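Honest question from a wet-lab person: if I give you the sequences of every part of a complex, can you actually get the arrangement of the whole thing, not just the pieces? Trying it with mine:
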Amino acid sequence: MADETIATVKPGTDGAAANPLRAGLAADRITSPCSVVFFGASGDLFKRMLLPAIYSMRLRGTLPTDFALVGFARTPFDDAGFREYCRQQLDLFMPDGKKPEGAMWDDFARRISYIAADFKETRDFVALKERLEQNDRELGTGGNHLFYLSTPPPVFPEIIKQLKAAGLDKDPTGWTRIVVEKPFGTDLASARTLQAAIEAVFPEREIYRIDHYLGKEPVQDIIALRFANTIFEPIWNRNYVASVQITSAESLGVEERGGYYDHAGALRDMIQNHVINLLALVAMEAPISSDADDIRTEKYKVLSAIAPPVHADVWSMSARGQYGAGTIDGRAVKAYRQEQDVAPDSNTETFAAIKLYVENWRWAGVPFFLRSGKRLPRKVAEIAVTFKPIPHRFYGDSTDRIEPNVLVIKIEPDEGISMRFEAKVPGPKDHVRSVYMDFNYGTGFGVQSPPAYERLIGDAMLGDQTLFTRWDAVERAWEVVTPILEVWQNTKDFSFPNYAAGSQGPESAKQLFADWRHL
Amino acid sequence: MTVDIPAILEQLAQSHRRRGSDAGVATMTIVVFFDNEAIGELARDRIRMLSSKHPSRVIVLDATAPETAHHIEGGDWIDVGVRGCGPEMLRSAVDALRLRDAPVVLLWIARDIGSDPRFAALCDEAATVVYNSSLLDGGHDALRELARHVERHPGLEIADIAYLRLAPWQESIALLFDGTALPELADVRSVEVACGSEPEALYLLGWLASRLDWTPGEGGDLRDRTGHSIAFALERASEPRRIARVVLRSSRSTFVAELDDGGETIALSVSGPNAREARHRTIQNPGIAALVERAILWAGDDRVFRAALGAAGTILARRAR
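Yes, you can. This is the full assembly:
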């Protein structure tokens, strides 16, 4: 009665023998059994993002049934205390108010444990090893271990060293993977140092450098838009595209992150990772397959085609700003230098804009404008591809302005795609005006996209590195921004603050974008 | 009997003009046919949920209302009475009212399939057909007819909601045999399925049979590749369309997947050499809209479904002898 084609199931990617009942059950992404260890489990990222993501996966059925969560941090909890802490945080931070309760929570809770630890103590990592072995025996986690570094970055090298010392860098029966939160270094040198520490213990195929932007649905849709359609790719080049602008703007200030941000700034915090990753997706060539490394190789090739600006050109290719006091949404907000944990004479930029060129056959001469800033009028992340103007004008009233077509990929807060084109105004005269064709995920598909962390944690459990950044791309992104960082760091900007909170950013940025007509 | 298509199209155009500049996005035309008054509102309600997620033109063919009754809602919802309309009239109405460049999905909510020429006519217009063998019939007649029809029309892209509802159970049963318990899958000696209606239970049995190469034996049992007998029992329990329990016994172990009291999780337990503490999986009872969505997105070329349906049909045919 069996269909030979489907009854023959290939062995699982993790080497497990094939279970014939699993054929065709691929509609939902179910990962293999595993323990996930969260280093820094008493921190903000864990309670606000990671724990709710994991529990949502449990409720959606995308978490493996044989699963264990181990918290590893300095805060003194025992297992029961940490379970209760997790329940309380889920009460506060689960989306849609889903409460941890019932048989589902009971089953999840018994899979949670905690190790109160000092990251410098090998004996605490040995205790972790024993706990993971216990999970493998009692909870069926199969020797598969995912280590999630959600501590402050300076601790990363120590954790990695201790994992090796405790023999946790590999397991003879299962897989071992490590997720590294951003920022990956604070400059090129520190990124290389961190990479050296990681690669001394883990091979690249086991390293998952997370950039949660890449887990957002509209970011993934860039690939679908470009390569699942035939109408865009033929015009996706220097012959038709005038410019590309990638914007990640926030209306928020630095909130409680002043201490971190004042040492980072907008270029490090956003442009070097999130925004450059978007550039790579927009500009890359079609990969030969959907294999993670084929896609990541194309992304790297784009970044390697960007010539980092020489120091002398930095000012003509970049603009920086720092917000002063102003008004947003009718509310007065204070200046950056008055924020908590920020130096009163800080030289840190809260706005960064750079112009880059991808020097290859497809994109030669097309400027890519990247900008990111805090305390701008509204939160918006989008990619705007502006096409060249019509070559010859014969239609329309002479007073009409014929605008170039613009394709906008909206990432947040709206998620979707819009296209601006010219259309005739009804009536006897030949007036034209711009109209917008708008596709919105919210109304288009009527559902909220799953949170980025859910997607990315699931991918790490599945061993799919597509949405994680490979080291060569991280390194290249640092190489691209390093000259700008160096010049900015070595030049005190006496005009700071140079834009009011709630404004569009500094005048110098407007100059940089002067030729860009989508603003 | 004729449907006044020009009048409907004019009403549709007026509706679009009234809506002004609303941007339109459409993924498909959903055609819903039903001939049972009791099911009409439920069907409309579920399709509203589906079309709010997947923007669509919806054509409701209401075979309980006269052909003079039609109305337009919200720009892309067309409700048409088709009582007494023949197959050609239905096909023509759908052809005129559908979106030109989007696929047509037919939701057939009526008992007869092969014996109803209206079904064949509408299938000609549809890229995907969605049926629900357990909606109108708690017994197995609809499933038997579906199995026959699919056998006769191998090219028809069809999905059955009753089968799609099994997904969390299939996943759970597969999970019971992952790892060290896998060899016991070749040693299963009996299967018990407790369910509120027959189609789901038969599908589950058909799925197991097709996956594990079991064939009906002469004594009303099943036989594995080596000729060993596998007893099976289908028990009525729980609410219609819900599976309550599945028990598989090998010569050494018992594998149980059972709905918990709250109905939200499946408890998995194993006794015997591979015994282990009970585990729980979320059941996530998807609504009919979510199941139809799944049918549209994934069921197009679902060979596992076709094999399960074929096996269930074979088991039913053997039982009828």
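Two things worth pointing out. Confidence is low (pLDDT under 50) at residues 2-16 of chain A. The CA atoms of residues 292 and 466 of chain A lie 4 Å apart.
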